[in-house]
Amino acid sequence: MADLTPDQRNYFYLIEAARAGIHKPILAALYAAHGSPNLSDGETGLGIAPVNRVATTQVETFPQQVQYAANTVRSITDRLTAQGLRSADLWNAEQGRYSDRFIQTVATGYNPPASDPAAALLEPTNNQQLRTAYLADLTIDYQADQLPQNLAYLDGALLRLVDRIPTYFQGLSYQREALLEALRLWRKLDTREQAIASLNLPTSATAPNLNELDRALTQFIQQASPFYGGFPHQREALLRLTQLWRQLDSREQAIASLQQNTSAEANIQIIDPALVAFVQRVPQFYQGQGTQRNALTESFRLWRGIDSRNNALVALGVSPQFVASPSSDPAIAQQVAQQIDRELLAFARRVPGSYQETQQQRESLIRLVQLWRGLETRERAIQSLLEDIRRMEQARRDSLEAPPRPAPPPPPARPVQWTPNNIRAYLYTSIIPNGSFTWAEATQGGTRIPPNQATVNAIVRIAALAQQARDRIGRPFRVTSWYRPPDVNRRVGGASMSRHIVGDAIDFYVEGLTGNQLYWTLDPWWPGGLGRYQQFPYLCHLDARGFRARWLN
After folding, report:
1. What is the value of pTM for the model shown?
2. Rg, Å, the chain Cα set
3. Rounded to an integer, what distance in angstroms lies between the CA atom of residue 98 and that of residue 107?
4. Which of 296, 389, 277 is nearest to 346 (CA)?
5. What angle, 0 to 180 degrees and rounded to 10, lies between the N-to-C axes of helices 272-285 and 359-373?
6. DSSP assignment letter at 249
7. Residue 158 in contact with residue 378, Cβ under 8 Å?
């Protein structure tokens, strides 16, 4: 694991800081300030050495050094708290960081008591160097998420959110995990299992009753605000709760989110998987009943922003004359109903692929659920969708409660000619009729759309030739690189005259075969460029230049 990148080291800092309930930049600062000891994996450590029951083999790699450094910082905090230091002595609430006094204490080193087997010996280091490194790493983190200069608002915001948690707890798994993490950090425990065991539930620790667990967690969080003293581990517990409750990417994003919003109400987006799953099942369960047709028609109307049901029927293809004066002929009425049903089901099948999470679209689907299920209010429809989410979380993949497998829409008809303007709408369409290669492969999933017709024609040209090569090999080609714009080509180190820039070159591999095997099979007849890579022995290169060229890179 020698030569870790800064981002890889930061990953270990984040993991261990979240486990131990400490501020991550102190770990980065210990690494920068100490630069020792030399470790068995080629890295340098955080000034951690074996002591008491911590053996040398437990602190001889970088991940181990970070783990025990986190334990040791937590132990230092515990000792200072036991000595009567106030939270303000340990944490600068306005600046959102450890106090200078705490950093100085860490810099003097630490020899943990034998009663703390999780902490190791921390060697002393230069206080100013440690503080400078700590502030530098903190600045990087805080600036990345544009946190305000003054974080004095944070504690009050955390407590306002926590006070509202019981009201909005829905028993969803991510909410339960958020509460468990808060409990674990608040009680200075290392694992989820330890946190559950600390609740002393009258059930097996391996499979607690969820209702009992939820009740105990709710009781715990109700006591958090009265017992909050502003100590670092308590703050980290509530920040972790906020991060997981709001499903945010980082601790810093949790801090930023609390500046304007302290509500514990779940984001309406959590019902989106249930909405999509519901509408996916509509074609399967649609029986042409009046209530079903009405529910789908109303959903269609809202989705399209149409002002009336009559205008929605016209948009579905019903004659305006029939809408204005329905025929009394049963055969005609049945024919119109069948036409409406076809259009409504086509609409339902399009929804999963076209849903953009807009408020208008979401309200359209909530209304569909409400009317389809015969619920009185929007709120009851949302509650029913939350129940769907709960069932989906625990469902076997082959059960009715599990989300149905997504189905792609029917492929559109091929255009007469490929152009730069129509490719994006046909990404998963084969480039040549009945071919194996798609525009998604040629354009890196639509991120590299050809800028002109010449490039489009070049892609079509190599697709036709490569299809012949694929048919000769008899196995799928896994494309790793096709069209590359000049800037991308430079970034990946491609040759300045690379055919990838033109669009008629493909790098690929075939599972189970080497580049040499592909080369020897294609060499006798391939009319253009054919190449191999010494550094990448399973890759092969084809291009459609107008003459034979062979190379080994």
Report:
1. 0.82
2. 31
3. 13
4. 296
5. 50
6. S
7. no
Give, rounded to a whole angstrom, the gap between the first and last alpha carbons of the chain: 29
C-beta separation of 449 from 459 below 8 A: no
Q: How far apart, in Å, are the Cα atoms of 249 and each of 155, 205, 384, 493? A: 20, 30, 28, 32
Phi-psi region of 421 (alpha: psi -120 to 50; beta: other; left: phi over 0): alpha
Q: Which two tokens stand for residue 126?
A: 């230069």
- How far apart, in Å, are the Cα atoms of 143 and each of 208, 522, 524? 41, 54, 59
459 close to 431: Cβ distance less than 8 angstroms: yes
The sign of the dihedral angle between the CA atoms of 361, 365, 370, 372 is: positive
Angstrom distance (rounded) from CA 60 to CA 494: 41
The span from the CA of 540 to the CA of 440, in Å, is: 20
State the Cα–Cα distance between residues 187 and 184, nearest whole angstrom. 5
Comparing C-alpha atoms, which of 140, 135, 389 is closest to residue 273?
A: 389
**Which tokens in the block code for residue 525?**
């007849």
Local confidence pLDDT in tens for the 553 residues of the chain: 458 999 999 999 999 999 999 999 999 999 999 999 999 999 999 999 999 999 999 999 999 999 999 999 999 999 999 999 999 999 999 999 999 999 999 999 999 999 999 999 999 999 999 999 999 999 999 988 888 889 999 999 999 999 999 999 999 999 999 999 999 999 999 999 999 999 998 765 456 788 999 999 999 999 999 999 999 999 999 999 999 999 999 999 999 999 989 999 988 999 999 999 999 999 999 999 999 999 999 999 999 999 999 999 999 988 887 777 777 778 888 888 899 999 999 999 999 989 999 999 999 999 999 999 999 999 999 999 999 999 999 899 888 889 998 888 777 788 999 999 999 989 999 999 999 999 999 999 999 999 999 999 999 999 999 999 999 999 999 999 999 999 888 888 777 778 999 999 999 999 999 999 999 999 999 999 999 999 999 999 999 998 999 998 8
Ranges assigned E (strand) in 238-343: none
CA 358 to chain centre: 20
Buried b or exposed e, range 51-67, using 16+ CB within 10 angstroms: bbebeeeebbbbbbbbb
Nearest Cα to Cα of residue 209 among 171, 168, 164: 171
Cα separation, 426 vs 446, in Å, equals 10
Residue among 146, 191, 161 nearest 262 (CA) = 161
Question: Any idea what DSSP says for residue 409?
Answer: P
Q: In 87-209, which residue ranges form alpha helices assigned H by DSSP?
A: 87-90, 100-107, 127-144, 154-168, 173-186, 192-197
Provide the b/e sequence for 409-437 (b: ≥16 CB within 10 Å).
eeeeeeeeebeeebbeebeebbbbeebeb
Alpha-carbon distances of 69 from 19, 50, 64, 123, 251, rounded to whole Å: 12, 11, 8, 11, 20
Tokens of 152: 């004095």
What is the H or E stretch that residue 284 is in?
helix 272-285
